[in-house]
């Protein structure tokens, strides 16, 4: 991201998305969501100079990432702003995941609570580059302690409880 005043612009993300979805953009644009079209259009508007600067910044940040994990196995961060969206049309705003994608860090989303609409609220377990297996193990360990599963209780109300993992 490149900060310009108070506005933060996801330059590399939107430009990369535009390249990765070029076939869909050129041949099946009508099948893309309005949000995706907006993001691709933002990527198309980025100059080559800004794109190159954003990629250079991303490389610098990737080189610094191991220092963030010095002394810790994983990081825990929000997965999204609030709970999962209602329905199956969208997975929610990817804002909090963009940085981990840009840094190529493995991450696992773990449900940890219910939001106001009864849908999951989660955290993201992030590991160092190349530590995919260790990140999965850590996410499983965290889930066993804070990641209850949604079940129906005796009154047929949905509640969070975790009976599948021993705690301790």
List the helices and strands and how they pair.
Elements: E1 2-4, E2 7-9, H1 11-20, H2 22-27, H3 34-44, H4 48-68, E3 75-78, H5 95-103, E4 107-114, E5 120-126, H6 132-146, E6 149-152, E7 158-161
Antiparallel strand pairs: 1-2, 3-5, 4-5, 6-7
What key attributes describe this structure?
three-stranded antiparallel beta sheet, disordered N terminus, single chain, 7 strands, 168 residues, two-stranded antiparallel ribbon
How does the helix and strand content classify structurally? Answer: alpha+beta
Elements, N to C (H/E): EEHHHHEHEEHEE
Average residue-wise pLDDT: 80
- Annotation, overall tally of beta strands: 7
Radius of gyration: 19 Å
- The total count of helices amounts to 6
- Total number of distinct structural domains: 2
Query: Percent range for helical residues?
Result: 40-55%
Distance, first to last CA: 40 Å
Biggest beta-sheet profile = 3 strands, antiparallel
Low-confidence stretches: 1-15, 162-168
Percent of residues in β-strands: 15-25%
| Basic shape | flat
The spatial strand order of the largest sheet comes to 3-5-4
Architecture overview:
With 168 residues, the chain is α+β, with helices and mostly antiparallel strands. The chain has two domains: 64 residues, no CATH class; 100 residues, no CATH class. Strands 3-5-4 form a three-stranded antiparallel β-sheet. A hairpin with a 2-residue loop joins strand 1 and strand 2. Helix 1 crosses helix 3.
């Amino acid at each position: 991201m490149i900060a310009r005043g108070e506005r933060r612009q996801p330059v590399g993300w939107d430009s990369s998305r535009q390249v990765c979805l070029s076939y869909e953009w050129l041949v099946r644009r009508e099948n893309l969501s309005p949000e995706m079209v907006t993001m691709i259009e933002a990527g198309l508007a980025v100059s080559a100079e800004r794109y190159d600067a954003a990629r250079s910044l991303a490389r610098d940040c990737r080189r610094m990432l191991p220092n963030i994990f010095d002394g810790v196995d994983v990081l825990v961060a929000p997965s999204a702003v609030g709970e999962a969206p209602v329905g199956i049309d969208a997975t929610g705003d990817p804002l909090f995941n963009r940085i981990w994608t840009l840094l190529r860090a493995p991450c696992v989303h773990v449900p940890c609570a219910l939001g106001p609409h009864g849908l999951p609220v989660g955290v993201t377990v992030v590991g160092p580059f190349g530590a995919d297996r260790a990140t999965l193990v850590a996410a499983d360990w965290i889930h066993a302690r804070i990641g209850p599963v949604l079940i129906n209780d005796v009154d047929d109300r949905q509640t969070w409880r975790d009976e599948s993992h021993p705690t301790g």
